[in-house]
Design goal:
The structure holds 2 protein chains of 2 kinds. Chain A is mainly β. Helices cover about 0% and strands about 55% of the residues of chain A. In chain A, the strands form 2 sheets. In chain A, strands 2, 4, 5, 6, 8, 9 and 10 form a 7-stranded mixed sheet that branches. In chain A, strand 8 and strand 9 form a beta hairpin. The N and C termini of chain A lie far apart (about 30 Å). By secondary structure, chain B is an all-beta fold. Helix content of chain B is about 0%, strand content about 50%. The relative contact order of chain B is 0.31. The chains are: A mainly beta, B mainly beta. The interface between A and B is medium-sized, with 26 and 21 residues.
Chain lengths: ~110, ~120
Amino acid sequence: IVLPQSPVTLSLSPGERATLSCRASQSVGFTSLAWYQQKSGQAPRLLIYGASTRATGVPDRFSASGSGTDFTLSISRLEPEDFAVYYCQQYRSSPKMYTFGQGTKLEI
Amino acid sequence: EAQLVESGGGWVQPGGSLRLSCAASGFPFNNYAMTWVRQAAGKGLEWVSEISGSSGTLYYADSVDGRFTISRDNSKNMLYLQMNGLRVDDTAVYYCAKVPNYYESNRLTFDIWGQGTMVTVSS
């Protein structure tokens, strides 16, 4: 399964709304889709699991949705700390494999 | 607080070997599968390998299968990645991460990550 993300780079200002897309080449079970945030020089951080559930401690300005092959991560009002790279990730059970998208860089 | 700390990275020539370690704390280590994920400079994330809590099942990405071996020592709360036959394209930051259990709502993800250790393969 390939997970192209779009756009590759998204340039926005604080306070604006961001919409990031992840499109799978094959249908993905909703439980198998996650989103991660990676700030420069840091490890990734789990943001969203099960396609739409925020991980512990994730602010409610982050939301996500989708099913099948189309998934979306939205950030309602960008804060300075939200500018980072965002990756979607899917899981396949047979053979076992985790695949990441190539990432969307959210820049000021 | 759950924490993972990697070590063992460094520079090695092509064809060489390296062993990465990951020290876990703050959670019942033996209850969880663990995984390695790598990231080449300026590139995206690539899953490398996973090991079950009991070491009974091991999984590898095709790109490392036959060259890398994942293992763990639950008595020491340690995860390892033995890397043999290293190639230039194995150069990356290697992260260890915790895998939630199948009955947890955030299953099929990596919920705790270490800070990473850099591996450079170059002549």
